Amino acid sequence: MAAWIHPHWHKYTQPDPMLNYIIGVYMALVGVVGVTGNLIVIILFTTSVNLRSVANTLIVNLAVSDLAFTLLMGFPIKTLAAFNQFWGWGKRACELYGFAGGFLGFASLTTLAFIALDRYLAVIHPLQSQPRLQSGSRVSKFLLMIWLWALTWSIPPFFGYGSYRLEGFHTSCTFDYLSTDVPNVLFNAGMYIFAFLMPLGMLAFCYYGIVHKLQGNKRSLRNFSSQRAMDRLRASKLDDLFAFAFKLAHFLIHSGKAISEVLDS
């Protein structure tokens, strides 16, 4: 096991066993809630014809990636490792576990970015964009781009660019963010910029544009003193606010793992 643990962690003692037990219980609870919630979303949106749209297809895609993430990264694997106080499935399983975390995490974040783009185009260019965006081929292209982009930034460690290693708690595995060799540094820099910052920037740009557009509409409607139109605008803004909160919650869930890694280091 020592060969695939970064030397950085050798100078630290193992954490208090009680902390791992707490993490194990937490992951089990989150796993049950996550699996149940995402299954409900998948069943609801795939069985109702009225809910089939680009935005809802992307939401289903997000639920699928989150469901897989929860099952593979949390309960039961992470829970069992935390209760056992160590990773007990070997180096190859560690690499596959790290790959699954990166692949599914990037897929979820990229899906959030495409959902934001869909909302942005619907608000900013409703007449020009919607006929094309609602086509089945366009949805398929969106999904293909999402999963290929996630694969692009999670598979290089298997070819010598970066690596997957055991984390400081010795109960889970992720990208090697500590080694300073050139291939590893270049890979981590590219991954951080293109797989993390770029989707995050896309989210910020799209929702800023939506809020700015709605504020402009609000000022225009005031000039016409249309109470009914104002009510519709408020409903639209509330809908976008709920959508943003939903996507932000998913983003924070996946960011929590990365933040914990930084704190460990």
From TrEMBL:
Secretion signal span: none
Residues of the G-protein coupled receptors family 1 profile domain: 37-265
Entry keywords, A to Z: G-protein coupled receptor, Membrane, Receptor, Transducer, Transmembrane, Transmembrane helix
InterPro entries: GPCR_opsins, GPCR_Rhodpsn, GPCR_Rhodpsn_7TM
Gene3D superfamilies recorded: Rhodopsin 7-helix transmembrane proteins
GO molecular function, one term: G protein-coupled receptor activity
Cellular component, GO, one term: membrane
Membrane topology: Multi-pass membrane protein
Localisation: Membrane
TM ranges: 20-46, 58-77, 97-121, 142-159, 189-210
Family: Belongs to the G-protein coupled receptor 1 family.
Protein name: R-opsin
Organism placement in taxonomy: Eukaryota, Metazoa, Spiralia, Lophotrochozoa, Platyhelminthes
